[in-house]
Amino acid sequence: MTNDTDAQQVPEEGAESTGETAESNLYWRANVRLLMILMAIWAAVSLGAGILFREWLDQFMIGGYPLGFWFAQQGSIYVFIALIFTYAHAMKRLERKYHLED
């Protein structure tokens, strides 16, 4: 008869040689999901706002400049910096959740 704690400590099939556990697999799955979401935002801002939707965005103004131009020159940089801080904050939370804090 086994209990639930024994099942949690058993490595998944094929993971014995690398020492990976089910918890580390969940951590990496969450990490990759976070990266994919942030990369999609990055692509939408850099390609979408700066290139594809530039003409439509140019009807709006920020600081006397068309919004499409502003995103292509400055706005995308601000979004990228915000994504870096978002990633760092989210990774701290993930590491705490999976007990990987320093």
UniProtKB/TrEMBL annotation:
Residues 1-22 are annotated as: Disordered. Keywords: Membrane, Transmembrane, Transmembrane helix. The chain crosses the membrane at residues 34-53, 65-88. InterPro entries: Na_symporter_ssu (IPR019886). It comes from the Bacteria. Residues 26-100 form the Sodium symporter small subunit domain. NCBIfam families: Na_symport_sm. This is DUF4212 domain-containing protein. It comes from Alteraurantiacibacter lauratis.
